[in-house]
Amino acid sequence: MADLEAVPEDWSSALVVVAHPDDMEYGGAGAIARWTAQGKKIAYLLACRGEAGIDTMEPAVCGPLRVEEQIASCAAVGVTEVEFLDHPDGVIEYGVPLRRDIAAAIRRHKPEVVITGNFRETWPGGGLNMADHIAVGRATVDAVRDAGNRWIFQDLGLEPWNGVKYVAAASSPLATHAVDIADSFDASVESLRAHKAYLAALSGDMADPEPFLRSMAEMVGQRFGGTLATSFELLRL
C-alpha cells in the first residue's frame, strides 16, 4: 500500500461530527489531542446520545450516562464544546433532516476543517461498517456543501459558511493521510477510557484501550514513517 501523506495543519478551527459517543475515540482522538495542544479550537457534534449502545442497560439510563462519558472523554483531549442531537441511536437515517442539523452546526461553529468517521461500507481490514456511521459520515460530507449555499435551509437564520478547507474521515479503508500521535497517544487512551460503562459491557480486544489503540497506531505508522499515527481519508474543497 502507498505511504500516507501528512494531514495539513494550516487551519485553526474544526468541528467533529460523529454518530455516537466513543466513535472518535477508537482511533481519531489522538489527532484531536495533538491539534488542541497546538491551540486549535475544536468542537464536537454527536448525532445521537448512544442510548442503544449497551445491551444490558435500558436506553433511558444509558443515554444520559454516555453523554456524561463523552463529555469527560472530550475533556481528556482538550475539547470543551460538545453538542448532542436527538436522532435515534441505531436507526439514524441519511436524509435532509440530518443534513440540516449538521449544516446548522457548521454555520454556527464556522470550522475550517470538518472531521467525521468512516462512511465507507467496510473498515480497514474488511470488517462491515454500521448504518449509523455511514449515514452520519455521508450526511456530514453533504452538509458541508449545504452550509455554504445561502438558498438551502434559509429558515435556520444563519449566515452561510464557505470556509471549510477539508473534510477528514477517520479510520477509512480509503485513507490517504495520517497524523503523528506519538506525543498525544496517552491522551487518546485516556479519552477512550472515559467511556467506562461502555467498555465494561464489551468483551474482546476493543474492551482494553491501550493495546487496542497501540496496535492500530502502529499499523498506520507502518505507512507513515514508523511513528504512532492515526489515519484519515482527506477530501479537499
Main traits of this protein?
single chain, 237 residues, alpha/beta, 8-stranded mixed β-sheet, 7 helices, 36% helix, globular
The gyration radius over C-alpha positions equals 17 Å
N-to-C SSE string, H for helix and E for strand: EEHEHEHEHEEHHHE
Number of helices: 7
Tell me the major beta sheet. Answer: 8 strands, mixed
Helix and strand content put the structural class at: alpha/beta
Helix content: 25-40%
Shape descriptor: globular
Strand content: 15-25%
Give the end-to-end Cα distance, rounded to a whole number of Å.
25 Å
Give the tally of β-strands.
Answer: 8
Strand order of the largest sheet: 1-7-8-6-5-2-3-4
Quote the average pLDDT: 97
- Parts with pLDDT < 50 across at least 5 consecutive residues: none
Notes on the protein architecture:
With 237 residues, the chain is α/β, with parallel strands linked by helices. The chain has 7 helices and 8 strands, in the order ββαβαβαβαββαααβ. An 8-stranded mixed sheet has the order 1-7-8-6-5-2-3-4, sandwiched between helices. α2 packs antiparallel against α5 (185-193) and α3 packs across α4. 46% of the residues are buried. The mean pLDDT is 97.
